[in-house]
């Protein structure tokens, strides 16, 4: 896998074409149960919704998403003739100026740019449940530039849904535009190279899990929020920040390829002690109602994949996996 910025023009266009192809393929999930699922990319978003209360802030976060991104790349290749690799979004390279990044500059080889500014744009964003507010971005409205201009999201905005209760309308057909609100203050503050270095210097898996989801800012650290994983979601705006439906955003898979890259590089620093390091349960916030995960814990992705044991997901070079991360 390679960072998006190192791909040639042709390679970037090939990836964009493959994403469009996935949006033109019929879904495999039944519309009777999933009325908002209208194409193959929606299959992935709905699957993410189904497992949201298990795969975040838990002992299976890294492994579940590793398989999820791999399944996406596999589908691009097998169903859309994609011959490249899944690129990753190196957060640090775009941290200083998101709108100027090749990923978000709105050019034909980008993933489209900022959204149109709405009339009622708030100047600051409160970071709840802390007492911190940060400057807002300049967008927030529909994306009208680049390869994903005027793109329609079919599944609902679930950002306001409780983080511990499955929403009743999770799969309702709710067509709306892709929105973006690029926020360089957030990228500079939470996903810079020093934030990447902090992740890679984590001494154990428990610390790595905390560091990826919790900021070093004292007020945010106390509140347990805004590590690089969440911050990268939030700095792109509402569609990407939706806890449940973020895979509808074309950037999602590149973001989680970067999360997987971080985990992989961290593991490779000390394979003897880190390759199979686990911590936590299989429920959000590591709820004590579920047991601690181990290498025999089974993970599922609905009809996207057969069930896997955690031991099958701990290395990028074992079982079904055979990939490395390039520069």
UniProtKB/TrEMBL annotation:
<keyword id="KW-0479">Metal-binding</keyword>
<dbReference type="InterPro" id="IPR002227">
    <property type="entry name" value="Tyrosinase_Cu-bd"/>
</dbReference>
<keyword id="KW-0186">Copper</keyword>
<dbReference type="GO" id="GO:0016491">
    <property type="term" value="F:oxidoreductase activity"/>
</dbReference>
<dbReference type="Pfam" id="PF00264">
    <property type="entry name" value="Tyrosinase"/>
</dbReference>
<dbReference type="InterPro" id="IPR050316">
    <property type="entry name" value="Tyrosinase/Hemocyanin"/>
</dbReference>
<keyword id="KW-0560">Oxidoreductase</keyword>
<protein>
    <recommendedName>
        <fullName>Tyrosinase copper-binding domain-containing protein</fullName>
    </recommendedName>
</protein>
<dbReference type="InterPro" id="IPR008922">
    <property type="entry name" value="Di-copper_centre_dom_sf"/>
</dbReference>
<dbReference type="GO" id="GO:0046872">
    <property type="term" value="F:metal ion binding"/>
</dbReference>
<feature type="domain" description="Tyrosinase copper-binding">
    <location>
        <begin position="56"/>
        <end position="73"/>
    </location>
</feature>
């Amino acid at each position: 896998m390679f960072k998006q910025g190192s791909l040639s023009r042709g390679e970037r266009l090939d990836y964009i074409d493959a994403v469009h192809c996935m949006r033109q393929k019929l879904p495999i999930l039944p519309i009777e149960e999933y009325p908002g699922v209208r194409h193959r990319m929606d299959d992935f978003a709905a699957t993410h919704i189904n497992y949201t209360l298990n795969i975040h802030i838990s002992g299976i976060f890294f492994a579940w998403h590793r398989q999820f991104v791999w399944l996406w790349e596999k589908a691009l290749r097998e169903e859309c003739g994609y011959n490249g690799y899944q690129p990753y979004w190196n957060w640090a390279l775009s941290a200083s100026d998101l709108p100027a990044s090749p990923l978000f500059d709105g050019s034909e080889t980008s993933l489209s740019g900022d959204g149109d500014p709405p009339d009622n744009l708030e100047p600051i964003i409160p970071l709840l449940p802390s007492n911190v507010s940060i400057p807002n971005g300049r967008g927030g409205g529909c994306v009208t530039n680049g390869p994903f201009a005027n793109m329609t999201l079919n599944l609902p905005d679930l950002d306001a849904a409780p983080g511990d209760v499955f929403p009743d309308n999770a799969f309702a057909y709710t067509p709306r535009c892709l929105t973006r609100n690029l926020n360089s203050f957030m990228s500079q503050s939470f996903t810079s190279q020093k934030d990447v270095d902090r992740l890679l210097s984590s001494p154990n898996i428990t610390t790595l899990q905390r560091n990826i989801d919790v900021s070093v800012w004292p007020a945010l650290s106390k509140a347990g929020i805004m590590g690089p994983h969440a911050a990268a979601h939030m700095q792109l705006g509402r569609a990407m920040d939706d806890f449940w439906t973020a895979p509808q955003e074309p950037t999602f898979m590149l973001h989680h390829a970067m999360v997987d890259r971080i985990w992989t590089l961290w593991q490779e620093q000390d394979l003897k002690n880190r390759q199979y390091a686990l911590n936590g349960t299989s429920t959000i916030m590591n709820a004590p109602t579920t047991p601690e995960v181990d290498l025999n814990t089974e993970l599922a992705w609905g009809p996207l994949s057969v069930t896997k044991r955690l031991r099958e997901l701990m290395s990028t070079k074992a079982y079904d996996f055979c990939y490395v991360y390039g520069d």
